[in-house]
Design a protein that fits this description.
Layout lengths: L1 E2 L36 E12 L3 E13 L7 E6 L1 E5 L6 E7 L2 E8 L2 E7 L5 E8 L5 E8 L8 E6 L5 E3 L12 E6 L5 E8 L3 E8 L5 E3 L6 E6 L5 E7 L4 E7 L5 E7 L4 E6 L5 E6 L2 E6 L4 E7 L2 E8 L18 H4 L5
Antiparallel strand pairs: 1-12, 2-3, 2-25, 3-4, 5-6, 6-7, 7-8, 9-10, 10-11, 11-12, 13-14, 14-15, 15-16, 17-18, 18-19, 19-20, 21-22, 22-23, 23-24
Length: 340
């Protein structure tokens, strides 16, 4: 199915907890145990909270500039939205915004966020936005206003042409299901995503956007929020446990899983890699944490009075074609159960 762009004008996520009420403030947090690493780039994230100028707001977009200094601040863009995702050069920030009961994808220039641009040709219910590293395509899941929730699928939108193509045909088989995260590979050829399946397990999959072939990556667990590493060989994700969740990485080639550290239940919502792949930033309640792979140490770098959800770390525009080829893939037609 295709939609061509034209001037036409619900998010669901894991439980993210109650937003703290109060006057929004900016807190400066020094690096203590992470050494003298000079971090660079720009974080984008959504905050649910209260501000004396904005009042009570749901998911306002924020940025934090990483300049190598030890003092960082949260800067509100005063734009309502969720699932922020950077364009490769940082000149555009894409996001999903709910409007009149439906949602659309928009873009905004962070240095002048007053003028947002509508991207999707049809409104709908969209989630988990991800921009391809080459800046040519957007990926998200959901259904349009002309469809039903059981039509929930992965879409890829061509930014230049405005065409929006459905990439999957997941059979709903009369039971509800949801996607829980989506991330492009560094060479912009594949997507990692999480999908709940029968038994309420959530597995990780890889989607080839050219062939639409799908490869099962994990099984027998609840794995969600995959984020592809800049080297193209690992994927970061959260694994559900009964008492806590665990950040893990999986090797795309060997499927070897490495556990990193545990986080409080339903509080480590989203994460992203640093451009060099030596750190990850992740949210927990109203704080953004930095994890150092070299030392296995974690440090708070930003705090806000509210709830932080979805952290996007601006990477450089370099594309790394380092993924293995000739992978065995399957399609949803082979994965679905037989009907009696």
């Amino acid at each position: 199915m295709f939609y061509k762009y034209g001037p036409s004008p619900f998010f669901a996520s894991k439980t993210v907890g109650l937003a703290l009420l109060g006057v929004l403030f900016f807190t400066f947090i020094p690096f203590v145990s992470l050494g003298e690493a000079a971090l660079t780039g720009n974080l984008a994230y959504a905050v649910n909270g209260f501000d004396e100028n904005l009042g009570r707001f749901d998911w306002n977009l924020y940025t934090t500039v990483l300049t190598g200094t030890k003092d960082l601040r949260a800067i509100p863009l005063n734009v309502k939205g969720m699932y922020p995702s950077w364009g490769p050069n940082g000149d555009l920030l894409y996001f999903i915004q709910r409007d009149a009961g439906h949602s659309n994808v928009y873009s905004v220039k962070p240095e002048n966020p007053k003028n947002k641009k509508l991207i999707t040709p049809s409104a709908g219910t969209y989630r988990f936005l991800s921009v391809s590293p080459n800046g040519k395509k957007l990926a998200f899941n959901g259904w349009t206003i002309d469809q039903l929730p059981q039509d929930n699928q992965i879409w890829v939108l061509d930014i230049d042409s405005g065409e929006m193509e459905v990439m999957t045909a997941v059979p709903h088989q009369g039971w509800p299901y949801s996607f829980w995260g989506m991330s492009w590979s560094p060479n912009s050829k594949r997507l990692a995503f999480s999908l709940s399946r029968p038994g309420w397990l959530e597995h990780l999959y890889l989607l080839d956007v050219e062939t639409k072939g799908i490869e099962l990556l994990t099984e027998l667990h609840k794995d969600f929020y995959p984020v592809w590493a800049p080297d193209g060989q690992r994927i970061l994700f959260l694994r559900w446990n009964r008492e806590f969740d665990t950040f893990c990485t999986i090797d795309v080639e060997t499927k070897t899983i490495e556990t990193l550290f545990d986080v409080d239940k339903a509080t480590g919502y989203w994460a992203d890699w640093s451009p060099e792949g030596d750190f990850i930033a992740y949210s927990r309640w109203g704080s953004i944490y930095l994890y150092d792979f070299a030392t296995s140490e974690t440090e708070v770098i930003v705090e806000v009075d509210g709830s932080v959800f979805v952290v996007a770390w601006l990477r450089d525009g370099e594309i790394l074609p380092v993924e293995p080829q000739e992978k065995l893939v399957t399609t949803w037609g082979n994965l679905k159960r037989k009907n009696n």
